[in-house]
Amino acid sequence: MKNTAADTTTTATTSPDAIKKTYFQRSPDVLRVTLDSSQTDKIGGNKREKSGNLVFSEGEANMYTLEQLMRASAEMLGRGTMGTTYKAKLDNQLIVTVKRLDAVKMSGIDGDMFDRHMEGVARLRHPNLVPVRAYFQARDERLIIFDYQPNGSVFSLIHGSRSTRAKPLHWTSCLKIAEDVAQGLAYIHQASNLIHGNLKASNVLLGVEFEACLTDYCLAVLAESSQHQDSDPDSARYKGPKARQSGRRVTHKSDVYAFGVLLLELVSGKLPSQHPFLAPPDMPDRVKTVRGVDDGFEETQLGMLVDVATLCSSTSPDQRPTMWQVLKMIQRIKASVGPDDGIDT
């Protein structure tokens, strides 16, 4: 690991004999991290624990310690493909999101490999990415700390929640979200050559200005060695036919396919599992019927978005565009819309 990351590491001061086990749980309403600090390593003449390190991203201020994170009150937000997500409120009133990665899926990743990967992921900074502020590992426990986004996910926006009924988003909202997501994905692909690998509506959060921001990015590659299959039919539908095959690595074109599925979900308001077998020629008519479109201009714009989605979700990866090309397509659609049509240009 680079010295910058090592310099910004907050380490627990626990006795080697005092702690035997590593875990992270809600018990009750408190995040508990127990550390094994018995293994040490010398870097530059200083002892550095191989486990129990809270590593802040390069350039980030140490706004809290590991002990403060351990004491944080916790609310479980949900369980997903890569693990369990918590909303954590620290004693200094700072609220963060903590992702506890699934230990079974991470079982094939050693500590050094996780460190190297997260060092690269933590460098990514873009207005349409939820930034990784810090990460932690101790034995089999891996935690990732993100900024907390209070406005929910695109999934909730599309499909509603327990207290609200969903209705189709206005087509200009679909266009804005699509552009934001495409911006974030294109940045990941070009700036780092990494892959999101787990794009879906629940992994697109709404920022303070209701901009769409990607989360859980670049983590799926860590679980590729796992034989555990995703049992959620909607999550599985975001994966292209080849990516669904056991042992197939995700690629940039896998992200493009997932984007196409997400775009269809945006314009149709339907879960991916509810439109898995629609032939491309049927898409515009189905979307028009679902949305009750009777405006010629809106129908044209929606048709253009459906065309982009269909191209992205081609069964052949070679036939799919790059995310940069997808972004340009969406921006051309946006440029065809005037201010009077309800979107900023």
Automatic annotation (TrEMBL):
One of its GO terms (molecular function) is ATP binding. Residues 71-333 form the Protein kinase domain. Residues 228-237 have a biased composition (Basic and acidic residues). Gene3D superfamilies: Phosphorylase Kinase, domain 1, Transferase(Phosphotransferase) domain 1. Residues 239-249 have a biased composition (Basic residues). Pfam families: PK_Tyr_Ser-Thr. InterPro entries: Kinase-like_dom_sf (IPR011009), PRK1-6/SRF4-like (IPR046959), Prot_kinase_dom (IPR000719), Ser-Thr/Tyr_kinase_cat_dom (IPR001245). Residues 228-249 are annotated as: Disordered. It comes from the Eukaryota. This is Protein kinase domain-containing protein. It comes from Saponaria officinalis (Common soapwort). The lineage of its organism: Eukaryota, Viridiplantae, Streptophyta, Embryophyta, Tracheophyta.
